[in-house]
Amino acid sequence: AAVVVLSMLDATVLAAASTYPHLSVLRGFRVIRILRVLRVARTLKAFSSLRALVSAVFASFFALFWSMILLSIVMVMAALFMSQITGEVIRDPDMDDEMREWAYRYYGTSSRATWTVFELTFSGGWPLYARPLVEGVGWGYAVFFALYISAVTFAMFRIITALFLKDTLRVASMDIDNTIQEQIAEKEHYAQRLADFFYAANVSGDGFLSIKELDHVLANKHLWAYLATLDLDASKLRDLFSYQDDGARVCIDDFVRGAMHLKGAARAQDVAALMRDVSAMMSQLEDLDMSIRSFKRHSVSPEVGRSMSGA
Questions:
Q1: What is the C-alpha separation between 55 and 167, in angstroms, rounded?
Q2: Which of 54, 123, 241, 255 has the smallest count of CB within 10 Å of its CB?
């Protein structure tokens, strides 16, 4: 419905711009077509990762907002502290003029210090703003920069990154379309691996796998281990032949379908379904047994009835 409305709006705006030249500015509304492209892109499998990323960005907006608030408070506090302690360096007449000029340039005022702390926090070039003070003024500055870089640039950044990653994974897990596509792709990939095993085992090349060919392949330890990576019990593959009419060979479709039912989780589901069916059959048999017993009690033969009345 949204695509139809956008198409009608696009056509109306362009028609008005062609009829009335002074409304040519409306041609800028052609950007609406981009929205239709994005709508189509949303349904494409190739854009599933992009859709999950955009959704994660929007979902983590509040986390980003409060993270920046917290970082801003920490950076302002650090900047005010640096502005105070470097003020003594700037006012010290015994200090080298070049050092005093450098200190004022980067930490002379609160605004200069805030911008400097912002750069050393996010740029990764913090030694450029720390080493001149450490080597030219005193090693006491090394304590401040070591604590700040360890607590903010290392610890806080990684905690914030972990929170963003958590939001991204949460949004990706809630994306039903993406989850369905991943499950379909995983199933197709698994079926392809089973088909590769089938073709490797079908040495005759006739398109059918016989029991002899399967036994010959299962004698190979490497192929046995390969089946283990597919979560398949190699000894159970022989059961696939018991479901066939001739019981001697299976085609690739039957092999893939049957092997997927033998897979770990699927096998457990089949057992659960079988137990449920057996339980239902037992309940029906009990009802049938009760019905038979009741019928026997109420159905007395005429001979028995006459003999009982004569007695």
A1: 10
A2: 123
Q: Specify whether the CB–CB gap between 195 and 169 falls below 8 A.
A: no
Which of helix, strand or coil describes residue 210?
Answer: strand
What interhelical angle do 61-91 and 48-59 show, nearest 10?
Answer: 60
Separation CA 305–CA 297 (nearest Å): 13
* Residue 153 DSSP code: I
For residues 36 and 31, what is the distance between their CA atoms, to the nearest angstrom? 9
Alpha-carbon torsion (172, 177, 181, 183), positive or negative: positive
Q: Are residues 256 and 189 in contact, defined by beta-carbon separation less than 8 angstroms?
A: no
At 44-55, the pLDDT tens digits run 455 666 766 777
Tell me the per-residue pLDDT of 180-215, one tens digit each, with 9 for 90 and over: 777 788 888 888 888 888 887 787 777 787 777 877
Task: Return left, alpha or beta for 304; rule: phi > 0 is left, psi -120 to 50 is alpha, else beta.
Answer: alpha
**Confidence band for 36, pLDDT divided at 50, 70 and 90:** low
| Backbone phi, psi, residue 251, to 5° | -85, 175
| C-beta separation of 117 from 82 below 8 A | yes
